[in-house]
Amino acid sequence: MSESAQPTTDSARRDRGNAIRSRTKYVNRACRECRRRRAKCDGQKPCCSRCLDRRLACVFSTEADNRGSAPKSHIQLLQNRVNLLEQTLQALGISIDGSPTSQGLQARIEASVTTPPVLRTVSAGSGCIPGQDTSRGDQPGFFGSTSGRLELQSRLAASTLPHESLGVGSCDAIPQDPVRRDFVTSGSSPSTQDVPELPTHLVDHLIEVYFEWEQPWFQVVDKKLFLESRRDGGRYFSRLLLYSMLAIASRYTSLEEVRTDTQDVNTAGLGFLQQAEALLQVDLKWPSITTIQSLTIMAIMYVAIGSDASGWLHHGMAIRLVLDMGLNLDASSAPGSSSLTAEDIQLRHQIYWSLYCSDKLWATYTGRVCTMLDYQGSVPLPSTVLPVAGSPLSILRELSTHCVILEKILTTLYAPNKTALDAEKYSFFDLCLMTLRGWFHSLPDHVGLNTSAQPKPQTSPHVHILHMVYHTSIILLSKPFITNKRFGESDSAPELHSAAASDVRRRASALCRDAAKEICLITERYRETFGSFRQSPLTATHCTLMAILVTLHGEESHAETSQGARKGLKTAMKTLEELSDSWTPPRRYWHTMTQALRIGSPSIENQDETPDWQESRASDAAASQNEQSGNQQEVHLRLGGEGTWVSPELQLASDHGAQHLTYFNIDELELTAFDQLPSDYLTLESLGFDFSFSI
């Protein structure tokens, strides 16, 4: 019975195998038996047809088979795709090395390596935070794992040398230079140099002015620590820092005592700056925290008097010292930070983020590259324990988070070696615009500002500047996508080959116009609340200039748009005029813009009417001008019905000599396109704009 059934079973198996082979294609990955026999395999699982027919064990190998590799063209396409994706991730600020797989592999590698005891605390990116009690004889400095000094310090600590010889919390393992020690102890340090004594009431007044107007925007000095150190002789006070603060505070006051020439407002603070510069030469030999603070303030002061190059140099020295002292690291968790108090750590974080923000504002003001990048630091954002309306720390925190976004705009769209390809810029535009708007809508109520609502009486003036910076960033993001050459399209602007690209260009133009209008509205709100921009930070200058350039660019020419553009232009020019009382750059921009508008108008009528509120100022300025430069032509420039604008005392210190008063009526100007501009302080190429415009 069984013998008769066997043939039937074999026949059924063969029939099934033939049926499977008839409907199954052969595969590239054959089983081991088929590969050994060099036979074709249909790849059926769990047993191929050939092995099934022969009652053989069918096993498929999991080893890689390098036969029949992919074509080179296919590999090249995949590599190009990977490179494009990596560049996109980098353009968006996403690390391509931060995947969980790579991190887990790195952790396993580190766990499998035995680290010598001396090097156990020295890892990549680690270092030693310098001690604070340097007594001006032990130069503080941060040294990382590649320097070799940490190993040297560890060996010295393990030797028979007394622990005190290393210095508490200091990374300097080299004994102090006796010449340096003798110089410091002999009384030649900057804090004890013989400098003129100043009236106490004047110093106290200027210190209060500094902390009221300058400190909330550039928070490199902590008021509590400074005043305590001034009273007790602590490490957060020095003559250099004091004179730097007095110099910049002098720009916010109209007191004649702070001027070297009582008739020249541009000399306010120059005497203090000269004293600070003399003290700086000694202080730079053994810098400290106060050196960084002083350099940052002096940089702003040099820009205030029109010396941009000196300001850039001092700002760069401050950044170098930040890296030298390890302020770009989180002092709360770094080795060697045990001697730092909570106030010390807070001040270090505050200085770092203030300089980081200042660096981004410098980059936009000068059109240069950023020198402090986000990935170079590991400092947590400033914390606000009590979110008081417009409190300095709350403003610094929001400005810091905004400048992180601004850095991406500058490095992606404006850097010489841009991080995004042309095809990627459109996606970057949408993503960055969404990020900027997310930042704006997530602002806490105490730093919010709504130009369409009633003003809040408790709003800080620096909150207005923060919002002006935001709208300026919108302009900077949109500008490269506008193809109008008169608005300064760069050579690297992306080509418009698609409907999507045209849509980006249209939205970018609208965003620029809306941002310029918002800046003008904010300046009007600022003027309503605080009177004028006489005591506004210097940052408002660049924001106002960008609004003017966008307003002059205006693409539409119908009457309503033209009228709105003229109104915005009046507001912005008035802001530059008010800023000119304290700062030199807006005075030069004001002069350049008035010259540009005069060139754009073939007919300018002299106006003899002057409102009462401007009459005395105009006559005083004209009299002073006549005394210094004799009879000069006066071209009157009237602002249609809203009062006559008199340029600030343009005969003050300028790299281009005396400048005469000019007046004209913007409402009567024929604003036509022109390409010729007077030679002046404004470098048009660096800003990416020219002044060919039509409204």
Automatic annotation (TrEMBL):
One of its GO terms (molecular function) is DNA-binding transcription factor activity, RNA polymerase II-specific. Residues 30-60 form the Zn(2)-C6 fungal-type domain. Keywords: DNA-binding, Metal-binding, Nucleus, Transcription, Transcription regulation, Zinc. SUPFAM superfamilies: Zn2/Cys6 DNA-binding domain. Residues 600-634 are annotated as: Disordered. InterPro entries: Transcr_Regulatory_Elem, XnlR_reg_dom, Zn2-C6_fun-type_DNA-bd_sf, Zn2Cys6_DnaBD. One of its GO terms (cellular component) is nucleus. It comes from the Eukaryota. One of its GO terms (biological process) is DNA-templated transcription. It comes from Fusarium euwallaceae. It is found in: Nucleus. This is Zn(2)-C6 fungal-type domain-containing protein. Coiled coil: none annotated. Residues 622-634 have a biased composition (Polar residues). PANTHER family: TY1 ENHANCER ACTIVATOR, ZN(II)2CYS6 TRANSCRIPTION FACTOR (EUROFUNG).
